[in-house]
Here is the input.
Amino acid sequence: MSEVLEVALIDSDEGFCDRFAEYFSSRQNFSIIDIARDGEEGLELVKKNQPDVLILDLILPGIDGMAIIEELEDMEKKSEMTVIVLTAFMKEKVAARLRDTAVDYYLLKPVEMETVEKRIEQLTSNDYSTGEIQEEILHERDEKEPKKSAGDGEQLDLEAEVSRTLHKLGVPAHIRGYLYLREAIMLVIDDIEMLGAVTKELYPRVAEKYDATSSRVERAIRHAVKVVWENDNREELEKYFSSTMADGDGRPTNSQFIAEIAERIRIKKMP
Here is the structure.
């Protein structure tokens, strides 16, 4: 590693990217060489510039973070690159999958920039082994998310929380897209990997429950998102979609809409 670490970030959250750039640009030991908000663009930049440290979210437009990680496995210089995943979701099977890939470490969002800096310094020095640091994050996660017993009550509470959120955003309860959105969000909260296969897995799962087709689910959700945007409840929308509202008409894709709501509810339910 060079004395000044070259760092790249791939994250679709504009606010997070701005905070990251502001924080690390003031650090003498770091040089930000790339910030990308799209998976495909980010992968190309990483292949071209091969930074010392790559930080990426799992939920990305274009291709998701897991697909980028799989691509990195084939890079000749991957052994020289430290890869850190940032995510708001971390089911045990996702963590297990990450441990078998090119990922050196993962952090749960929301996260302070000081923590990101500390982890980078640990991972790129000889003071800590990757195993020791991973043990630390697993302990921190267990502290935040004590295991709960699954039950009907918990599922009903989750459904009620999702329903309240959709009502606040202005999704009409009488349209089919409302039911499809609610089910899709609950599925993503339970399994983040659904976002990496929206067309092949998420829509079919929703369609199966409501005796519909994947194409009908996709169209109904798209219509529901359009209705929300036309109602223009800006105060509520900005709580969830401030990053997309800064670009063009601001309307998110189906995947972005589902991901943002699922992420907020997940964080809100953390003790």
Remarks:
- The domain at 152-269 is CATH 1.10.10.10 (Arc Repressor Mutant, subunit A).
- The mean pLDDT is 80.
- The two ends are 38 Å apart (CA to CA).
